[in-house]
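Here is one chain, start to finish.
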Amino acid sequence: MSRVTVYVPRDSAARAVGADETAAALVIEAARRGLEIELVRNGSRGLFWLEPLIEVATPAGRIAYGPVQAEDVPALLDAGLLQGAPHALGHGRVDDIPYLARQQREVFTRLGLADPLSLADYAAHGGWAGLQAALALPGEAVVEQVLASGLRGRGGAAFPAGIKWRTVRGAAGAVKHVVCNADEGDSGTFSDRLVMEGDPYLLIEGLLIAGLAVGATQGWIYVRSEYPDAVTTLQEAIARAQAAGWLGDSVAGSGRAFHLHLRQAAGSYVCGEETALLESLEGKRGIVRAKPPLPAIAGLFGQPTLVHNVVTLASVPQVLARGAQAHAALGTGRSRGTLPFQLAGNVKHGGLVELPFGHTLRDLVFGFGGGTRSGRPVKAIQVGGPLGSYVAQKHWDVPLDYEAYTAIGATVGHGGIVVHDDTARMDRLARYAMAFCAVESCGKCTPCRIGSTRGVEVIDRLVAGENRQAKAQQLQLLRDLCDTMTHGSLCAMGGMTPNPVLSALEQHPQDFGLPAA
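Its structure:
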């Protein structure tokens, strides 16, 4: 029998549920039986409910089995795992699994295909094509490509990326920087981590293109401290890319320099805000800066700085490789391209779903997610992280794009979707939002620092109120407090905290001891 290639993810989510043990069991059991296998530790496909997911290369394609624990390996080998034979844990061809087949993966097209650290595999699957295209163009032409593509920041603010690039390129400065905000701290989000652990050269390529386009020679990746696997993978990827000539004094032999540095974040949620992140990168306490000046003019060390999150930068190579119009042709309205939606919480099929803008929350939660894991009715769906609104059921069919969600008082944010069933207590979730803000606030502005602390107290009094008058007083106080935080906070930390509070209150007043709407 010839050597068979078997894939087991090295992604931290897969490892958390036993992927390392499954991989070790495969090696040991195959050796005991005299079977020759080549074990490849690939990135996760993003189908988390099937992890650890084993894939076996066969003439008919890669066949999937999962979730496979170490104790399942002997029986799987008995049943013909290495031939792709049917089994209770089998799912047929990976590409035919409906969860994957219905997606339109553009940014995450390589996810799970190969060893994330193999430069040869990256190139074999289309890697560096965007960079090569960028190297053949003057910087201003690359900026125009990004502008024409309609690419907007995927970190939440959705600001047009090309405008940022044009501003940094035109800013005066002997040294310029590109900073990757990889401090992914929103609840229910993991797309940045999947890129860093599963396709790190894609991020490096995006940073390189951005740096060459705006005239930056220094790149920085600020990685969430709770992502040790991402840190380790990126360190190795940067070292290999530099040794191969993709980074350094002459990028791909072009004579143009770009040096890339990795920094571990400070463990503070507010450092996901770009100016607090820059403060932290400079070795200071992560406190939000007043604007102006904008980071594009005076950012890191007072020098012009382009700041993007991981998925924004990871979207850039395809824009250059395929052309701006290919990206602009996807999506709806002013929301162009795709977004990696992330299904989490009480959901049957949690994982990553990349689709063009314009799909609906109902399709994502029920069509892909399969409803709740508990089997109970869905009560609340929070979109856009811990400071995102709970989207009312009447809006579950609104197209997911930035403007449409703004119109209903919600936010798409980073694409995180957290599902709750009918046992959830919305008063407790609202209280958590205020408590989270109180703990994570940088403390610079009063509405955020004091408002969040008072918010916890007011919600407690509202829920505990013994009569209608007492509840009415606390309800009015809570609304006034939220108004102050929304309009008076220095950054989105305090400005968005009222979103989950007010949406929970509006949709589920009975959980606060108030009459149903």
